[in-house]
UniProtKB/TrEMBL annotation:
GO terms for molecular function: pyridoxal phosphate binding; transaminase activity. InterPro entries: DegT/StrS_aminotransferase, PyrdxlP-dep_Trfase, PyrdxlP-dep_Trfase_major, PyrdxlP-dep_Trfase_small. This is Glutamine--scyllo-inositol aminotransferase. Belongs to the DegT/DnrJ/EryC1 family. Keywords: Aminotransferase, Pyridoxal phosphate, Transferase.
Length: 374
């Protein structure tokens, strides 16, 4: 029985091997490793994909968050609202800048920052940083209204949400990264759009913000030898941009395939054991970065699947307020009960465009099998 991995980067590479190899070879031959044309091409193409005015390639998703917060002047004395259910990179750059995260509990269904919780925690908050977790859009309209009331900016952590769509009540559609002042994307290899190493991008519709981020990503440089501010070494690599240009051409169809697979999983797993399946969020278009089920038997199910050569994952087992790195903030178990329950119960099943119908059936059958034996 062959193993079904959680993410299959080899299958993804095989699909576009020739084009990717050629694009990389071109950079190696022309040796424009830094600030090459491929970066400008990728920035233009990714802005078009996200339907934003600008996209600025940077070194990683974490760098995208760091630069966006820095460009907004976040620093000591500031607090930034961050959901407890996310990867730690959402909060780290807040701390690097000398500011503090203000943790916010999540919606029990979607796993995203809960606007009702956020509302009660806005006192003293200088920016809001929601995450489109697992590729599912956050309730941006509710969060934007709270932000407008408080007069603070919204930065979207769209690391998992390339192509996700937010449908507003007036019917207009905004892609993830195009709603707040900034959208922060990660092109970590396992993301829906993945590079061959670390890479990221920032989308924005604001010319001034775009110019500031471009300056900050490259040592605060305004001309070759003039540095107007102390900036950062957060550039995107030309080689990574070359890979991303090729992979971007199949992102849309990959996202469609992910949604198809998710619908298939949900059909095959409905009513099985105590499983809670990803909720349908009418109108909102998720790009299904993770397919997350919830169960009180999570750890046993994870171990059972492993025995069947099926790799599942946990995104994420420890909410941010209980991470040792944030122990200094003095939070304790029970402070964010919805996020804590999610962390105990969530399990991610394999999902990626190259997953075959047969592989999905094998995963679904194994899950059903596990609950029959309970
Ligand atoms: C991947 C990820 C990041 C960090 O991106 P890197 O490219 O790994 O730095 C930030 N936030 C979330 C939600 C992520 O999933």
């Amino acid at each position: 029985m062959s193993k079904i991995p959680l993410v299959d980067l080899k299958a993804s590479y095989a699909k576009q091997k020739e084009a990717i190899d050629a694009a990389m070879q071109e950079v190696i031959s022309n040796t424009r490793f830094i600030n090459g044309q491929e970066i400008k091409d990728f920035d233009a193409a990714f802005a078009q994909f996200c339907r934003t005015k600008h996209s600025i390639g940077v070194g990683s998703g974490t760098a995208a968050l760091h630069l966006s917060l820095a460009a907004l002047g976040i620093g000591p004395g500031d607090e930034v609202a961050v959901p407890v259910h996310t990867f730690i990179a959402t909060a780290e750059p807040v701390s690097w800048l000398g500011a503090r995260p203000r943790f916010v509990d999540i919606d029990p269904e979607t796993g995203n920052m809960d606007p009702a919780e956020l509302k009660g925690l806005m006192e003293g908050v200088s920016a809001i940083l929601p995450v489109h977790i697992h590729g599912r859009p956050v309730d941006m309209e509710a969060i934007a209204a709270i932000a407008a009331d408080a007069g603070v900016p919204v930065i979207e952590d769209a690391a998992q949400a390339q192509g996700a769509e937010i449908v507003k009540t007036d019917g207009t559609v905004v892609r993830a990264g195009g709603y707040g002042i900034a959208g922060c994307f990660s092109f970590f290899p396992g993301k829906n759009l993945g590079a061959f190493g670390d890479a990221g991008g920032i989308t924005t519709n604001d010319d001034e913000f775009a110019a500031k981020v471009k300056m900050l990503r490259d040592h605060g440089r305004t001309t070759k030898y003039e540095h107007t501010e102390i900036g950062y070494a957060h550039r995107l690599d030309t080689l990574q941009a070359a890979v991303l240009n090729v992979k971007l051409t199949v992102l849309e169809e990959g996202n469609l395939r992910r949604r198809e697979l998710a619908a298939d999983y949900s059909e095959k797993l409905r009513g099985v054991g105590d499983l809670r399946l990803p909720p349908a969020t009418p109108g909102q278009v998720s790009v299904m970065h993770h397919y997350v089920v919830r169960t009180h038997h999570r750890d046993a199910l994870l171990a059972f699947l492993k025995e069947q050569q099926i790799e599942a994952g946990i995104h994420y087992p420890i909410p941010l307020h209980l991470q040792p790195a944030y122990a200094f903030m003095g939070h304790k178990e029970g402070d964010f009960p919805v996020g804590e329950a999610y962390a105990r119960e969530c399990l991610s099943l394999p999902i990626y465009p190259e997953l075959t119908d047969e592989q999905l059936e094998r995963v679904a059958a194994a899950v059903r099998d596990f609950f029959e034996k309970q």
